């Protein structure tokens, strides 16, 4: 009997989840490993070799660690659960002219739900993953804070986790840097794993070509979108594009046409298959509306809370004030922000702590 209880560890076969399992084992937990197959790349019509968390090689790597460390390991097929929600939403959001963040959606609605369901079936009190983040607690309420390794920090994609998830979750890598994690794998005899590369692609688009993915998923996409127009802010036609789902707010490269000066996507109008182009200053907004808000550090988002708001994963964040309005939050930026893309996540930070987050509905300019 373990001294700390039983934990179900999500194991992709990569270095992070493997070291997470090792650390939980060394910390006195009874570890059970689980590898979830979320996606079969062959069904997408892709041409490259399947790689990443769903490949046979990765599954075998995870199983080998479990055998070496003498704990149980299970492989669970959740392709139907994953596909129906995450992939259908991914396609629907692009077709609606928005830019989705499937990793946030997967964490919030699929991965944790699937893990906790299997944890309950296996009598596991806790779950653990290889995410780089820290869980803190104040007066019984748990919230996520940034990882020690700021370059690997994944708090941005975890804003949707609720209290029931956070009270049962461990992030054993949050206090370590990536080089330290590699060294831990090396020191424990996994030299090849320590050298293993990382994938930054969407798991179900492993060739990173989401345009081709959309074409394979949406029947007649080329015919439906043929003849779309680039227009300027006044509605004047200034060119032709390949279809509005293939563009995102703030995009400058890949427009397929030289305009003589830098032009950016400033608006997408799916109902008319129109993409609005403008100059860089037309992307600047001082406010945005955020929906589907999850309050994390506090039971509710306080009025006028002073935070730093990130509007994309690699964003440094902008000083801002939060104004709750019913189920939404209006973000008042204290410095202008460029390239706010509807569908992306907005995450609010108080120092290193995640106050909460939500889905960007729209950016706008408002006189305060």
Write a structural description.
The protein is of the alpha/beta class and 368 residues long. It has 3 domains: 6-194, HUPs (Rossmann fold); 224-278, SH3 type barrels (Roll), CATH 2.30.30; 282-364, Translation factors (Elongation Factor Tu (Ef-tu), domain 3). Helices cover 26% and strands 29% of the residues. It has 9 helices and 17 strands. It has helices at 15-26, 56-69, 79-95, 102-121, 163-166, 178-187, 191-194, 210-217, 221-225, and strands at residues 6-10, 30-37, 73-77, 126-128, 134-138, 141-145, 169-170, 228-231, 237-241, 264-269, 274-278, 284-295, 305-310, 318-325, 328-338, 345-350, 353-364. The strands form 4 sheets. It has a 6-stranded antiparallel barrel. A hairpin with a 7-residue loop joins strand 13 and strand 14. The longest helix is centred in the N-terminal third of the chain and has 20 residues, at 102-121. It starts with 5 loop residues before the first strand and ends with a strand. The relative contact order is 0.12.
CATH topology of the largest domain: Rossmann fold
Q: Structurally, how many domains make up the residues?
A: 3
Taking pLDDT < 50 over at least 5 consecutive residues as the criterion, the unreliable ranges are: none
Shape: globular
């Amino acid at each position: 009997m373990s001294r700390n209880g039983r934990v179900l560890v999500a194991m992709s076969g990569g270095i992070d989840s493997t070291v997470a399992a090792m650390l939980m084992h060394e910390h006195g937990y009874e570890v059970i490993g689980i590898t979830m197959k979320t996606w079969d790349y062959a069904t997408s019509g892709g041409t490259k070799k399947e790689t990443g968390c769903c490949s046979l090689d990765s599954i075998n790597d995870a199983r080998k660690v479990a055998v070496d460390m003498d704990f149980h390991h299970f492989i669970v097929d959740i392709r139907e659960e994953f596909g129906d929600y995450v992939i259908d939403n991914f396609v629907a959001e692009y077709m609606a002219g928005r830019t989705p963040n499937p990793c946030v959606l997967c964490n919030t609605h699929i991965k944790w739900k699937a893990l906790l369901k299997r944890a309950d079936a296996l009598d596991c009190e806790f779950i653990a993953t290889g995410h780089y983040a820290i869980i803190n607690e104040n007066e019984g309420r748990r919230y996520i804070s940034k990882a020690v390794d700021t370059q690997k920090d994944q708090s941005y994609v975890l804003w949707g986790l609720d209290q029931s998830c956070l009270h049962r979750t461990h992030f054993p890598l949050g206090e370590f840097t990536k080089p330290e994690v590699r060294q831990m794998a090396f020191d424990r005899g996994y030299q090849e794993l320590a050298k293993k590369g990382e994938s930054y692609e969407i798991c179900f688009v492993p060739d990173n070509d989401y345009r081709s993915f959309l074409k394979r998923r949406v029947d007649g996409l080329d015919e439906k979108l043929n003849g779309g127009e680039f227009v300027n802010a006044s509605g004047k036609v200034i060119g032709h594009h390949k279809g509005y789902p293939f563009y995102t707010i703030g995009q400058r490269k890949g427009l397929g046409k030289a305009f003589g000066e830098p032009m950016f996507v400033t608006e997408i109008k799916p109902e008319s298959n129109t993409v609005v182009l403008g100059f860089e200053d037309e992307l600047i907004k001082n406010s945005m509306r955020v929906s589907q808000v999850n309050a994390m550090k506090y039971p509710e988002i306080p009025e006028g809370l002073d935070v730093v708001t990130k509007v994309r994963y690699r964003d440094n964040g902008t000083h801002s004030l939060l104004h709750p309005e019913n189920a939404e939050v209006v973000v008042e930026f204290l410095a202008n922000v460029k390239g706010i893309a509807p569908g992306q996540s907005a995450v609010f930070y108080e120092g290193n702590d995640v106050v909460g987050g939500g889905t960007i509905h729209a950016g706008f300019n408002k006189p305060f």
